[in-house]
Amino acid sequence: MPVQKIKRNYRKTKYILYKETLIDFKEHFWAFLGSFIGIGIIAYLQSQTLPDSDVVYLIGSFGASSVLVYGVIQSPLAQPRNLIGGHLISAIIGVTVYKFVPDILWLTAPLAVSSSIVLMQMTKTLHPPGGATALIAIAGSEKIKNLGYWYVLSPVLSGVLILLVVALIFNNMAHSRIYPNHKKYHQFRKRVATMFKSKSDE
């Protein structure tokens, strides 16, 4: 039944949040390091290109994504499908809403966020920072608004891919941390590692 499934998911999320917020200095170290490097790379790209062009790499919703993908890595909301899909869907909706109704903020802001939530739910890509990504397309700077659908590719897709690659590296460096929580990915990773090891031994 749907109610039992909701209760089960609630209990699971509650346990994950409890586990991830325990005082564990190793966990804190990897969460700090991963988020520092992930956001640091995006911020560096921003600092290098902004003086010469209008290219934007860094948006506020990446900070919220970092909390999930480096700090609560077992959460269903932090998985790669949610990270990428949630941001992309929200970015597309945000830009589309702004293009059709550009000057009525009291209507476009809630419409973009609400539509993003529903579409993320429908596509099973729910990622809370996606709501902020949609909102930034509506209420962000003129530079961001002028990007149009390029906003979806950069800063959104480019930044999300950087966060994901860094998460795949640093969230798997400690034996106690596994990301993503998809078994097939880790089976594939072990197979690749075994292949490289056997080739180096030859």
Automatic annotation (TrEMBL):
The answer to whether UniProt assigns keyword Membrane to this entry is yes
Where on the tree of life does the source sit, at the highest rank? Bacteria
Report TM segments. Answer: 29-49, 55-73, 82-101, 149-170
Arranged from A to Z, the UniProt key words for this protein are:
Membrane, Transmembrane, Transmembrane helix
Q: Name one Pfam family in it.
A: TM_HPP
Q: Which InterPro entries match?
A: HPP (IPR007065), TM_HPP (IPR058581)
Say yes or no: keyword Metal-binding present. no
Q: Which residues form the HPP transmembrane region domain?
A: 23-180
Query: Which PANTHER family does the annotation name?
Result: TRANSMEMBRANE PROTEIN DDB_G0269096-RELATED
What is this protein called in UniProt? HPP family protein
